[in-house]
Here is the input.
Amino acid sequence: MDEELKSKEEVKKPRKKSAIADEKKVTTKKSSTRAKKTQSETKPKTVAKTKKSDGEEKAKTAKNTKRKTTAKKEATSDEKVVAQRKSTKKTTTKATSAVATKSKVAKTTKTAKKEKEEKQKEELESKKILEKRQQEKKNLPEEIQLQANKKIFTNLIYAIAIMVFLILINLGFSNITKEYFLRDINVFTLCLLILTILVFEQAYKKDSGSITINGIELLTLSLFVLSLPIILAKYGTKFMFIVATVSLVYGIYYTTKSTLVYLKMRKDYITSLSDIQEIIKKEPKKKETK
Here is the structure.
């Protein structure tokens, strides 16, 4: 019994192994068929996926190339715009510089023309003023002419008065007795001295040089009249001749004085005109320096 059981078990064992091998084969076949199915199923999926991925990559690359091309185009367009702007700026700067230079040239020409016109006007004005001054040099203005005539007239009156007075002394010497004549001379000397004192006081009050000169003239006349008795005592026969010569001396003195006064006033007026001419000459120089 034991041997049969063992033989049965031995028979069972190879059968189990063969069954396991067959099962394994079946499983391997199933797995291979499944794998083939899965491969057959996955192949179109993977192909589709690869196609999709290739399409996406191509689309991405196309998009990237488009982006790059658009970026390049934009960059080139921007560069062109920048270049155009630079060129326009250059042209505008050139145009503005040309316009500025033209305006500067125009301004300089205008200023030069204005300066020339102003110089010409100033020269004409100065010439006119010089002509007027030359005419005025020849002919004094009315105010100065009146002042000069007034002074000449007063000097001539003094000369005539003194000459008449001395002629009257000569007539008195020839027609009046010696006693009356000497008394009249003393009276005349007293009056002349009083007159000279009054004139000097007036000159001191007014501080005038012309009045002081008139006082000195009266003082010399009064001293001459005071010395007449002495001249009469020493030069009795020549008395009338001495008095006549003194009267002529006074006449010559006052005529020369009047001419000198006129010449002095004329000279002062001409010097004032020359000062005005110097001022006129200096004014355009100051304008040029400015």
User: Anything to note?
Assistant: Residues 144-289 form one domain. Helices lie at 2-138, 142-175, 178-206, 209-226, 228-234, 239-289. The chain has six helices and no strands. Residues 8-16 have pLDDT under 50 and may be disordered.
